[in-house]
Records
---
Amino acid sequence: MGAAPLRALILSDIHANLEAFRAVIDDANNRGGFDVLWCLGDLVGYGPDPVACLKLVQSHSFLAVAGNHDHAAVGKMSVESFNYAAKAAAHWTTSQLPEDEVEFLSGLPLVANNDPFTMVHGSLRDPLEEYLLDADSAEASLKLLTSRFLLVGHSHLPFICLENKGTPQFVEFTEDAVLSLTEERWIINPGCVGQPRDRDPRSSYAIYDDQATTIERHRVAYDLESTQDKMREAQLPEYLIERLKLGI
Ligand code: ZN
């Protein structure tokens, strides 16, 4: 008996933005649906709905790794290196988490595998904090990679990095293109659900289809004003509220 067909919804940096997370799930369902959620960390931090977002992840079949904001929210990582706004949001998030969600976030692994994919928030060299955005960081992760593909988040920027005869080459992960996965090794960032930073405020995500052996990336607008209203109500920093509509 062969393995059942699998479609994975690949998400990173949900950041407690429930409107964005729901819009992504609806959009993915309109594009053929999915069997499993793969979450690349930073489920919480910045946004106004940490508990609802965690519940929504848990209501699906899922694989998730921890991000720096997840660890900060549960006290597993110092917020010393965070800027003022991120620090304030981390403290607020901590105040919202019941004990069972603290345990859930604390228990997330740094690296997860579902062959041929490995998942990590930052990089394999530094799972929580390194931004994988240049040839040096890509090369270091490819050295440590034991599967064909590496999924990363953290920078909130979508891209594909191909291992071109041993040399990492960054290329655009074009919106709505359906890409066939080749024998080459790839590092893939699906972009960000809850706080996009490529000057496009729409949420970004990817879908992997193991029957077609394809991966595709899509964007979807969400009810950003509702998220901003909730953030004001929670007295989260104005900078975090404003940046959502700028996509920065
Ligand atoms: Zn993040």
Note: The pocket of zinc ion is lined by residues 13, 15, 42, 67, 69, 154, 156 (CB under 6 Å).
---
Amino acid sequence: MLTGGGDCPGLNAVIRAVVRKGVERHGCEIVGFRNGYRGVLEGEAVALAPGNVRGILHRGGTILGTSKLNPFREEGGLERLIGNLQAAEVDGLIAIGGEGTLGAAARLSEEGVNVIGVPKTIDNDIAGTDFTFGFDTAVQVATDAIDRLHTTAESHNRVMVLEVMGRNSGWIALFAGLAGGADVILIPEHPFDIDDVCEHLRHRQSEGHLFSIVVVAEGAVPRKGTLPMPEYDRDEYGWPKLGGISTMIAEELEHRTGFETRVTILGHVQRGGTPTAFDRVLATRFGVAAIDLAAGGRWSRMVGLRGITVVDVPLSEAEARPKYVPEKLYEVAEVFFG
Ligand code: F6P
């Protein structure tokens, strides 16, 4: 088993579930690779028995460590992965991660390695599952932040711009914005027009509401030709290293409306700390389902949630496309804009 990519609350619950069900019910031996694919490349593995996973259910992060290392960009990556898995006498690999980790797992599966995927991201943008664990926790943290921003915004008659994570999709921004009563929500699925945002703020002002809350997903983009497109460095998997678009938005809003504006970038606070009860339960169910698939020899599958049922789908589904916020859901949020 390995945990790869950005960490997320609930990873330890998956690890615990895989070990407890795997060892106690299926009679498996479980090893955990350290720091994602780096541990497989470097042959760094630890034996995991039920005693090693006591007391971790409620802990954020991952006891195995993680990294964003893309093994296929390393010299002889594929051969080293396969060689080290064979050397450790691994029958199958449970890869817990997001698009990059699951994409690499799918590639390994094409090369004949037995693999099971467990989807993980606070962004909730992986296809093949209605929800990923970690998302609920991130939404709760962001909602708490909005509640706190409300009282100070109201006291000072300010516009508060809150930036949350969400690279391809605006799930966190949308859910937290709805829960926190945001006055505008900007998400990557809907390129925004800064004039429209200003209009919403002016409308609120004209109705006597002298403060506003604007929630921005880090991947939000301006409509073409309205504002300069932000540029970002790229990570190991080629993803832009986002963060900071809210500063540009806040400056524009203040400049165009004259309303005093402040920015909060929530950053990694929303990825850390203790998982919510929902995330602990979902992560536990995913872990149990993943080891059941492995024990049954049902490889190249990814576990997922459909409604209230844990299902399994082809592993390739995870990397086929991101799961975007449906139009209908954004329309619900728009009811409360301005
Ligand atoms: O896990 C995905 C994500 O949360 C994105 O929303 C964000 O852009 C990224 O992680 C940031 O991760 P890091 O700073 O660890 O590279």
Note: The chain has two domains: 2-134+275-319, 136-272.
